[in-house]
């Protein structure tokens, strides 16, 4: 049985004055914490503050990105060893906004994934197709290529990792994949890992992301291969995020 995991991706939101309050509000969710793992990924300068607010609670924290190298002359970048120093558990790699706005290729993302593992961080690998790719019937080959870039890195790269399927057309658009669409792609992702490492595939948490909110979480979470959510917009509202945690915990209870 896989324990559900819900991670909040704050993206480029949150100010010094509000970060602690939001983080604390998450820890006060009235849920069965044994049934769901919870993480928050604020912007880099807020990590320490958020960590201070949630430490001692079951809520973990992480970064939204990292550089592939562990140090060096890379102005404006953040390295894995520093995220580790900050007590991060997770780091998101290959988010579609990084792939799109910052031109990260599958190879760049694979190198970041490797850097995360090297620094004892749990990489949350984001994969997903654009609307254009889906309409052209290319959703599967696109996701397959994104997965294979990482699968080719090592014998068992997904051990100790998380994958988030985030169809780009569903991110921040209010348009969510149907539970069936999510399940279909999650099953493909699990089988791609399973073809090489059946054991790892069975335990690999597969999160769905893309306009997850309290209104749709309850139908997405119970899908067989949906093990939780990567939440953007809705994680900035404490009550919405708490409701999503509740839906995930309930799905975990039913598994
Ligand atoms: P969204 O973002 O929930 O605002 O669609 C999800 C994500 O980009 O991780």
Bound molecules: 2-phosphoglycolic acid
Quaternary structure of the protein: single chain
Distance between the termini: 7 Å
Could you tell me the mean pLDDT? 96
Poorly predicted spans: none
- Name the CATH homologous superfamily: Aldolase class I
Specify the CATH class.
Alpha Beta
Total individual domains: 1
Q: What is the molecular shape? A: globular
Structural class: alpha/beta
Count of alpha and pi helical runs: 11
Q: How many distinct beta strands?
A: 8
- Under CATH, the topology is which? TIM Barrel
How much beta, percentage-wise?
Answer: 5-15%
CATH architecture: Alpha-Beta Barrel
The helix/strand series, from N terminus to C terminus, equals EHEHEHEHHEHHEHHEHEH
Largest sheet: 8 strands, parallel, barrel
């Amino acid at each position: 049985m896989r324990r559900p995991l819900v991670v909040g991706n704050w993206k480029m939101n949150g100010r010094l004055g509000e970060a602690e309050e939001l983080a604390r509000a998450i820890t006060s969710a009235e849920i069965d914490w044994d049934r769901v793992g919870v993480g928050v990924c604020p912007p880099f300068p807020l990590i320490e503050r958020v960590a201070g607010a949630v430490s001692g609670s079951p809520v973990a924290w992480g970064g939204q990105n990292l550089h592939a190298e562990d140090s060096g002359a890379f102005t404006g970048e953040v390295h894995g060893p520093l995220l580790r120093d900050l007590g991060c558990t997770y780091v998101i790699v290959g988010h579609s906004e990084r792939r799109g706005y910052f031109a990260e290729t599958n190879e760049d993302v694979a190198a970041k994934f490797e850097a995360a593992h090297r620094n004892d961080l749990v990489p949350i690998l984001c994969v997903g197709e654009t609307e254009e790719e889906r309409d052209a019937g290319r959703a599967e080959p696109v996701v397959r290529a994104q997965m294979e870039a990482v699968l080719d890195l090592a014998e068992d790269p997904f051990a100790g990792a998380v994958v988030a399927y985030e169809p780009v057309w569903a991110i921040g658009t209010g348009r969510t994949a149907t539970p069936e669409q999510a399940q279909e792609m999650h099953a493909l992702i699990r089988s791609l890992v399973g073809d090489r490492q059946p054991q790892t595939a069975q335990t690999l948490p597969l999160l769905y992301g893309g306009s997850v909110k309290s209104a749709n979480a309850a139908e997405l979470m119970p899908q067989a291969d949906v093990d939780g959510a990567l939440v953007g917009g809705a994680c900035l509202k404490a009550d919405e995020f708490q409701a999503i945690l509740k839906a995930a915990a309930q799905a975990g209870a039913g598994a």
